[in-house]
Design brief:
By secondary structure, the protein is α/β, with parallel strands linked by helices. It is built from eight helices and ten strands. It starts with a strand and ends in an 8-residue tail after the last helix.
């Protein structure tokens, strides 16, 4: 279980996360939504250990979060890869470095599910489309079966049909393999459809946490009610019957 307790993060003189407490059990998905500048990317950086909390603790099953090496799917897919290496090398080097033996056919299976031809992995990041690079980033996160994956806007570069297909693949793999997923997204419809819990960040604070069904039908705070109303108006979320 990922556990954040009273986490605060400062950048210079400014505190960008304020007293964040949330838990994410194995096999479940926490979707974190909020406007730009709400603190979503800071939250991911803190979990990865790129930013050190000024207060509070971040643990996995009571031990240091760094002991499990969480996987990350970055928002900017091409920037996630070394530009001079092939996608295949970038994907497989961390696997080799950790001494992980992949199950037979795992790479083929994931490529098929993500609709990535195997020979495409021999290209460099600039030689594929942004959507292909984003799916390659998802492949890299999934390949070694990590217990925790952090997704930062993982579907933003994909068309609507591919978004639905990829989201379903991730959900199916999660059910099969039991990893925990933290998804940062602006898409409330995606968050509700694929999250077990929804956490709304506002100005570095958790405005509200609820299970997805409750949040979709009856958010409590005025701010979250406005987010829901806006998503319904834009067609990204269905109104309750």
């Amino acid at each position: 279980m990922l556990d954040l307790r009273n986490v605060r993060v400062r950048r210079g003189r400014r505190e960008t996360l304020h007293d964040i407490s949330v838990s994410l059990p194995a096999g479940q998905t926490l979707a974190v939504v909020g406007e730009s500048g709400a603190g979503k990317s800071t939250l991911i950086a803190a979990i990865l250990g790129l930013l050190k909390p000024s207060a509070g603790q971040i643990t996995w099953n009571g031990a240091s979060i760094q002991s499990i090496r969480p996987a990350l799917v970055m928002q900017e897919p091409r920037a996630a890869f070394n530009p001079v290496l092939s996608l295949r090398r970038s994907i497989m080097e961390p696997v080799a470095a950790q001494g992980i033996a992949l199950a037979d056919g795992r790479l083929d299976r994931l490529c098929a599910g993500l609709e990535l031809p195997l020979d495409l992995l021999d290209r460099r990041p600039t030689e594929v489309s942004i959507g292909q690079a984003q799916r390659a980033g998802i492949l890299r996160a999934l390949i070694a079966s990590p217990p925790l994956i952090l997704f930062d806007e993982p579907l933003s570069a994909l068309d609507a049909v591919t978004q639905k297909h990829t989201a379903r693949l991730i959900s199916d793999l999660q059910k099969e393999e039991g990893f925990a997923a933290l998804i940062v997204t602006h898409d409330l419809g995606y968050a509700v459809a694929h999250g077990d819990q929804i956490a709304v960040l506002k100005a570095g604070r958790i405005e509200e946490i609820a299970d997805a069904e409750t949040f979709a039908t009856n958010p409590q705070s005025a701010y979250c009610q406005s987010l829901r109303a806006a998503a319904i108006a834009l067609g990204g979320l269905e109104a309750a019957a």
